[in-house]
Prior knowledge:
Strand order of the largest sheet: 1-2
Structural class: mainly alpha
Radius of gyration: 24 Å
Order of helices and strands: HEEHHHHHHHHHHHHEHHEHHH
Shape: elongated
Number of helices: 18
Number of domains: 2
Helix content: 40-55%
Distance between the termini: 47 Å
Low-confidence stretches: 1-37
Strand content: under 5%
Amino acid sequence: MLCELHTLAINPFDNEMTETQNLIGGSGQDEAAAAGGARKILVRRPGMAAGRMSWRDWRNVRTWRHTAQLAFALLNVFLCAQFYLWVRYYETGGRTLKVARPDGVEGWLPIAGLMNLKYTLLTWTIPPIHAAAMFLLAAFLLISLLGKKAFCSWLCPVGTLSEALWRLGQRLFGRNVSLPRWLDVPLRALKYLLLAAFLYIVAVMPAEAIESFMASPYGLIADVKMLNFFRYIGGSAAITIGALIVGSVFITNLWCRYLCPYGALLGLVSMASPFKVRRDAEACIDCGGCAKACPARLPVDQKSRVRSAECTACLSCVAVCPAQNALQLALPPGKTTAAGGDAVGIARRWRGRVLSGAMLALLLALVVGGVIGAAKWSGHWQTRLPEEVYQELLPRAQQLGHP
């Protein structure tokens, strides 16, 4: 599944104009001044023209990423609509359209996924209630282990919305707000504190307590309680969500960067991934465009590899890089030497080690589809409860409190 990455591109809808674009004028080999004054040979990536690549080019990583984002967002909208219709059928006593319960909505229950994962590890038994939440969590953890925190920038609907909001702010105001480091660093710690709190809650629960919670009326319809949170949202929650939406227009990835515990967990796991964004110093022309394009504000241009838990494998840095084999999501390079920036030698040491945009999209599809397929094949994907349980619990879901 590994192939050499020859080109990734700038999205034609972006307003990001970096120094990189000024370095690309002709074709073949061009010269650009390096930061230290020495001159390096720029071997341009195929398909790049004036710092951009056509969205129709299969090598354009942003085409693959935005396609994955759109597809997963539409899938979630469909699942939510189907789930709403399913809930309404029981709320109205069977007077509305009856549809099947979509188990994929349990992906919105990460805490239930953590609880069930712990229960399975302790008892070696797959729980019958909300098992889909555990399988989806396992799929996203596996993605992080193989392809960095790609779930956040390729699949997560909240991440997609967050990106759309800060890009809107960029279009409206020409730039986004970057918080000073003395404030940015402690705010980034918030998501890890939230993660620690959730992990502690799950860690202290014995298997019997988890089983009891899942079998309680509240636990049986936890997914319905999540839906009703948004259907009957309170004033304080609405103000908080509204503030986050408005703030995300001005601050890049406000929720994801500072508050998302799910992303914090995936980020920690992603640090063990063998694939990382890697920079080849001999191919790099030191234009600094990669660092400017990084939504996480990582100093990509100063690193031989990006190990940060903040990296979401969005490959925005790779997309703007004009130099062939200078920046890519890859395994460690081979030991082939490339004296004097020899393009052939540079290409040889990256051969078979690069994860292109197309291959990363395929990896995501295989992992998520494979885990869901295995769960369905084994009979552990669906939550199966008697109709009488739903007929009794769903009409009074708002009255059911947390046990």
